[in-house]
Amino acid sequence: MGGIIVVAEHRRGELNPASLETITAARRLKQGKEQPIAVLVMAKDPDQYVAELKIDGVDEVIKAVIPTEHFQADIYAATLQALMREREPSVVLVPHSVDAWGYVPAVAAREMCGCATDVFDFKYEGDDLIASRAGYAEKIHMEVDFPGKETVLLTVRGNTFEPAEGQGDPQVSSFEAPETKARTEHTGYIEPDSAGDVDIAQAECMLSIGRGIGDEENVEQFQELADLVGFTLGCSRPIADNGWLPKSRQVGQSGKTVVNCKVYIAMGISGSVQHMAGMKHVSNIIAINTDREASIFNIARYGVVADILDIADELKNHFQ
Question: Is 219 found in the same domain as 152?
Fold first, then answer.
């Protein structure tokens, strides 16, 4: 039958925002292919999520009543498998998460489907779907194809696509989930340690530092500058790897993607592919680096070839 199925995730009665991002990914896949998009929501009471899933571009919301409100890998896998056998979709998209790890690869193996996880881009070459993901500890980008596969399952990296917006009027249907014996039991939630004092993914103005700052003792100077101008301080991977700033401050493929940022100042950042992937939604990038050949200048709206410590001092003097 073809078409695209998006699996909506939820927790504690709230829809996972990544579900809306995955709908955006589906809308992109749909372009030029005229494939209908169906969103599957599995829950004890799926009706509570339907209104949020009535998004422009979604053709159908499928409700599957399951015996638990909490994620259960066996039940999710059996329900998705049954729906896939009935609908025969060309693509199934799932937010990349610990939940997805628990059942998506198993479904792909049982159904002999193509599968790629943590995908951040895709395209069609003719009728062939090509998915992009990172490899070798985020050092390279790989393109994955799926020869001979009628159905492909992809988990979509969070903060890669904008959340889908716009009111739609999709058909709402029900799907009978098969009876499945769960092999695990949900006993409760354990709150994780705080990921940091700020969520850089939602910051509107960012000042990010890279290895060009030289020494750890210089971090405080840039934190003071960021506070002075009302920016959120971020960093590239070397700064986080050295422990100079928390991992929660790292921008890039192995860190976070800044999705709401209007102005991004990159100081002492050369511009690796991995870092630039985390700032691809930013329209106003200001790069400061002593290396005039640094890759960051290729995507910057404004570039300054100078010592970042000197620039930081000048900015502090100006704004104080």
Answer: no
User: Is the predicted pLDDT of residue 140 greater than 90, yes or no?
Assistant: no
Same domain, 166 and 210: no
Helix axes 73-87, 98-111, angle to 10 degrees: 50
Domain presence at residue 182:
no
Neighbouring CB atoms inside 10 A of 124's CB total: 12
Residue 59 has pLDDT above 60, yes or no: yes
Q: Read off the pTM.
A: 0.73
pLDDT tens digits, residue range 83-111? 999 999 999 999 999 999 999 999 999 99
| Whether residue 55 sits in one domain with residue 11 | yes
Q: Are residues 139 and 220 in the same domain?
A: no
218 class by beta-carbon count within 10 Å (0-12 exposed, 13-18 middle, 19+ buried): middle
For residue 141, with 0-12 CB atoms within 10 Å meaning exposed, 13-18 middle and 19 or more buried, which class applies? Answer: middle
